[in-house]
Amino acid sequence: MEAKGLTPILNVSDIAGTVAWFEKWGWKRLWDWGTPPTFGAVGSGKEACIFLCQGAQGGRGRGANTTTFQKDGDEEGDKGVWMSVWVDDVDEMHKHCVAAGLEVTLPPTDMPWNVREMHLRHPDGHVFRVAADSSPKNRTAGPVGPMRAIAMFRQSFDLAFAASVPFFGRDLPDFGP
Q: What is the pLDDT along the chain (177 residues), one digit of tens a residue?
């Protein structure tokens, strides 16, 4: 069997409010269902789509933490879903999100796994790791799709953890750059 696609479903407290939140950082409402709507979808570009379900299908919950990846345990505070969203320029997206009044819990940061990322928190506690490839050899290789992202993480984690966990990632298929 080969998967033909993967669409995450976020449990949200307010469909209309969530659509408006996504629109602030450039996403579009794709469709909704019900009167009033209790299910819907937002999308960005040609491939990114997230389903939204009001009050069901998964967990949600905002933690008391005000940051992510900055203090011990702060990435465990929120009870929502964490997702990576790949963009061309994290710093431009950061400026856009700050200007739109969205909550950034981690400013643009160069991570040891050759990714520059920022974290954006949805009011229901979902965290979006907005990221771009920051490795010098890959900066001109074009957009980062899902398979290239997996390959980048695998390569970076293999390098970072080779000394402490020599078998890490060896059972994963090689997706290539």
A: 887 888 999 999 999 999 999 999 999 999 999 999 999 999 999 889 999 999 988 889 888 888 888 888 878 878 889 999 999 999 999 999 999 999 999 999 999 888 999 999 999 999 999 999 987 655 444 455 555 555 555 555 454 444 444 434 444 444 444
The structure tokens listed for 59 are 């967990």
Whole-structure pTM value: 0.73
**Domain end call among 9, 30, 58:** 58
Helix (H), strand (E) at residue 173: none
| DSSP letters for 23-56 | HHTT-EEEEEETTTTSEEEEEETTTEEEEEEET-
The domain in which residue 14 lies consists of 1-58
Residues 133, 134, 135, 136, CA torsion sign:
positive
Which residues are CB-contacts of 146 (< 8 A; sequence separation ≥ 6)? none
Same domain? For 73 and 50 the reply is no
Alpha-carbon distance of 12 to 18, in angstroms, equals: 7
Both tokens of 140, joined, read 């001109």
